[in-house]
Amino acid sequence: MAKYTLEKSFPVICNKPLTINVEETRELTLPAESKSLPFAITYVYSGYPMDKEARARILWGDFGKIRKIKATYTRVDLSIFREAEKQKASLETGTREKWESR
User: How far, in Å, CA of 6 to CA of 14, rounded?
Assistant: First the structure.
């Protein structure tokens, strides 16, 4: 969708993750670069006070030498959650109906 929009000469702002690998990112940015279009990615967490405090404390050396940083991004198919919610709702409704019929 973003690439199509850029190809049609519209500016784009995307949420993370932008793509799943570097090659896809390069391919996605080509239309923006060739047409000099604004193309941005949001970094929501960078403005959080906790993140700013952590950055400052790292720069001040409060944690000593940083030897390892581990970051993860879990990508989940949201339909799993939607299906679970449907099942939960039907179970709750069935329970309520049984209780009310007593």
Answer: 12
Vertex 40: Cα angle to 36 and 44 (nearest 5): 170
What's the domain range around 76?
2-100
pLDDT, tens digit, for every residue of 27-57? 999 999 999 999 988 876 667 788 788 889 9
Backbone dihedral angles phi then psi of residue 20, each to the nearest 5 degrees: -100, -5
Which candidate, 33, 24, 25, places its Cα nearest to that of 6?
33
The residue type of 13 is I
pTM over cut 0.85? no
